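Hey Z.,

So I finally got round to the xanthosine-5'-monophosphate thing we talked about over coffee. Here's the setup:
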Amino acid sequence: MDIMTRKMLYSKEEIDQRVRELADRISRDYEGREILVVGILKGAFVFLADLIRCISVPCEVDFTRLASYGAGTVSSGNIVITKNIECSIKGRDVLIVEDIIDTGLTLSYLVERLKEEEPRSVRVCAFIDKIKRREIPFVADYVGFTMDDGFVVGYGLDADEKGRSLPDIYIIEE
Ligand code: XMP
Ligand code: MG
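And the result:
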């Protein structure tokens, strides 16, 4: 996949605007509470950094990392946690922050795993949602943008580790 053949999908300005809108909603929904934000490495770190700085309620931050093993580029469903969160989530309000939802396999696995630890609540905030690509039903609580098919890079998202540092989001033209 060549990140040079790309077309802008969301500009930095559109991204900033949408992040502020999401943060406002989250701040209202969690008023008077404290959020434990769990970012999914690596892709979500840029979005997470912007989001938490616009949220007005106190946020604690932790990270997890997952991998899906199997043939091909699409999720196989064999998902494993390669880096666990390091804090206790029992009784806490957990907000998972993800860059993009595709098949839904990663997030449904993670949500189920975290629920076993009896948090007070678990919600998901994903910056991009490829709704039509779901292989299992999964609905995120907060979504920045929905898109159809296509592979995107920038704003933390990568193609073979390239393109993560781009401030805008681009669709790769194959
Ligand atoms: P699921 O389990 O929902 O996995 O299929 C979502 C994960 O797939 C990766 N992904 C992408 N990464 N551009 C990327 O940089 C994309 O267009 C894209 N689509 C899916 C991503 O790692 C996400 O966490
Ligand atoms: Mg990811």
